[in-house]
């Protein structure tokens, strides 16, 4: 489950993928499959939240890992690499933003 709080040290990746609108749903489906088949079974994985922009031009993956080190190990995982290559083939560009939560305000 996603935890958005400054009370922990989770590593958060906000990955913005830029796609042609006709590729948006295919990328969303691919990211869901990759998460279900591989990512959620890797050490340190906490959550993934996949968003599609209303204009169809972006897909955003808000993913949390126990640490940056766990995330970096995933990047070289032999089961994760094929999923990343498939995603790369569908996107025009992407912007991985590595963050940590500084505050969360809700009502």
From TrEMBL:
Span of the signal peptide: none
Q: Per the database record, which ranges form the ABM domain?
A: 11-103
Which terms in the Gene Ontology molecular function aspect does this entry carry? monooxygenase activity
**Record keywords:** Monooxygenase, Oxidoreductase
Q: InterPro entries per the record?
A: ABM_dom, Dimeric_a/b-barrel
Gene3D superfamilies, per database record: 3.30.70.100
Q: Does the keyword Oxidoreductase apply?
A: yes
For this entry, the protein name equals Antibiotic biosynthesis monooxygenase
């Amino acid at each position: 489950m996603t935890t958005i709080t400054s009370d922990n040290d989770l590593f958060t990746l906000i990955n913005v993928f830029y796609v042609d609108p006709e590729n948006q749903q295919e990328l969303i489906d691919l990211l869901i499959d990759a998460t279900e088949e591989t990512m959620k079974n890797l050490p340190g994985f906490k959550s993934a939240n996949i968003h599609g922009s209303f204009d169809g031009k972006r897909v955003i993956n808000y993913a949390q890992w126990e640490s940056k080190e766990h995330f970096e190990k995933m990047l070289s995982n032999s089961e994760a690499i094929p999923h990343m290559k498939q995603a790369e083939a569908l996107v025009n560009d992407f912007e991985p933003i590595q963050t940590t939560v500084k505050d969360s305000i809700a009502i």
